[in-house]
Please model this.
Amino acid sequence: MDTLFFTLVFFFLISAAITWIAGITLAKTTDTLDSRFKIGDALGGLILLGISGSLPEIAISFSAARDGHIPIIIGTLLGGIAMQTLIIVFFDLAVKNKKPLSYVAGCPMLALETFLTILVTAIALVATFIPASKNIHNTNPLSFVIIIAWIAGLFIINKARKNPSWNRTAGDAMPGRKHRERRAKQDHPFYANKSTLHIILIFAAASVFTLIAGVVLEKTGSAIASRIGMDSGIFAATFLALVASLPEISTGLESILIGDNQLAVSDIMGGNSFMLTIFFFTDLIAHKPILSYAKQADIFITVLGIVMMTIYAFSFLLKLRHRYFKLGLDSIFEIIIYFSGVYVLTFIR
Model:
């Protein structure tokens, strides 16, 4: 490999580290702003949480749309569904309990959130079959439907959270705090003595760093994939999706370690559904109906994500009690399905 390749890898790794650190900062400042502005579980709070948690994917996708790198957009967003679902396996491994995560956190509410995310993903899947020539002002007709479905889902979830029947857990479960309880706490400890203006400035700075890092990730990632002869879509669906998920891994593990098991899973599923709303805006930037350009491999990775989420959705209802190698049976299936899928994906490409 030549000097340019190692330079690209260096900047890719530096950008990944910035994304990780800035993403954690965004999560903590978002919690504090939620508490101070009293938006909690309101629609505004859920949208703020979704946007701040998905800034890496937004930056990568918008940069790729501007450059016309459609496979990068599709790989990052559709591939990110499967990757972020796989993150729950790490959470399961970190749970301090003799029972798996799906048991200690499982409830109808988590299953509902997951099924709604599956619905939004299914709409994106259907959108891939609409020809590019059938666009509406250069956008895929279903790209905007995804946004409508996501917002409708937020209303349903917000209403269901207030109903005790949707929050039933096993008698010896350890779900941790509810969303409203986390949002009602007195700021994040790191920002307890900071003024609101100070926190807003930190939030803005972290957002800027995340966006810049995302642009660098997209450009260096595309170049690295080209130089090693790897399809850019596969690179985006695996390596880029993993890097963009680093903040979720860190903040989710932090939630697990302090006992907020249900919140960790809920935030992953919420992020999955929000990511797909980005397609509408990439359509506008690229002046093309992005999902209409999805290939067979993109459809495959989307189905893979739906299957993985479906497994967890039912496990949240069934609440399997046993762990094997410190993992629930559902998480073991997730590992097998994901890596088998990635292996098959290389042949499809």
